[in-house]
Amino acid sequence: MPFVTIDLLRGKPPEYLEAVSEAVHEALVEGLGMFPDDRFQVINQLAPGELVFSRDFRGGPRSDDFMVFTITDGLDRGEKAKQAFYRALTRNLSENPGVRPADVFVKMHVTPPVNFSFADGVPATETTAREALDRAAAVPGTRDAYTRTEMVEAITRMFRDNDRGRIVSMLRDHFVLKMPTSMPYGGEFRGAKEFDDYFKRVVEQGNGYYETFVTSLRRLIEADDHLIAEISITAKGRTTQQSMDIENAWVFDIAGGNFVSAQIYADTATGMKTAG
């Protein structure tokens, strides 16, 4: 998220400016852990007299190669990270394009993420939250709790987009999925793995009962301690070749920022008839 403004005296060739740009970017990635593709910079070349600086105050001696780096970040990365960035920046600039460490001045500003908007009028708070969830999805259980908004989005993505990666990453070992035992694929399924395996078996593979099985989200209702997903199911039995178009409801119980359980209320009779 850091935004970089670089001020220096006018007259440097393009390759010099490119080397300065690359030096600060690599230092941010190394020192502050910035994403490699998070690169936003403005380079201002100023005429003599427009960049005023002391040649000797708290450093120096400074030359006409003096430059100022203003880093505006949405996160306070901590003192050690900042020191690592300073060291990496001066080292990189010294190597290419040959700027002396005495000519490198850095200012760092921390501002709340809501003060950034990368595109489309969306505040960076939403962007970074989505990125954090995507990273957490790679290692389920790394987050202790989730917001109501994140839970709603996870359910929406599962039923609307057939993307359960987000919700699977949120489920803890104590989570229980309860399916009607009257169904051939009913029972209780615990934790993220059993939940994921259930969907692979029933929705993606038809569990041997369905030739096709498609879910779509009609609406999602929010309550104090649960979320209700009203969905439609269109399916075709593998052996019966009968089709069904039914509606059911998934009730997700939530507590302490986590999914506790989920239970489906469905037209089991039609489901069994179609499944054969």
Automatic annotation (TrEMBL):
Segments forming domain SnoaL-like: 152-260
Gene3D superfamilies: 3.10.450.50, Macrophage Migration Inhibitory Factor
Domain of life: Bacteria
A UniProt-annotated Pfam family: Tautomerase_2
InterPro entries: NTF2-like_dom_sf, SnoaL-like, Tauto_MSAD, Tautomerase/MIF_sf
Record-given protein name: Phenylpyruvate tautomerase PptA (4-oxalocrotonate tautomerase family)
